[in-house]
Predict the 3D structure of the following.
Amino acid sequence: QVQLAESGGGLVQPGGSLRLSCAASGSFVSISGMAWYRQAPGTQRELVAYITSGGRTTYVHSVKGRFTISRDDAKNTMYLQMNSLKPEDTAVYYCNANTVVVDSSGPAGLEVWGQGTLVTVSS
């Protein structure tokens, strides 16, 4: 069983900053790609940022230059530094990880989601 726990969400004024964290726990062999998604009311969940096990990153166009994704594999934790926040960044942010676990058949891939953390950007 693998769990992801997000933290760091909250209310911030436009132009402000927040740092989200996503900590992985449980029994797994490794974590490869990790990502942050977000879902605003009435919209589909969208990919915000992605980081490979080697540290390569990609971002959705709307957050480039404002958000930074990173990971600390020693702590099994991923981060999302969000600067210059805008009202349109308001959403529930979810972390996602592709893990390798061992089951009765041997190593197997397992995609895991966190429960989400709410970010509200408003004056």
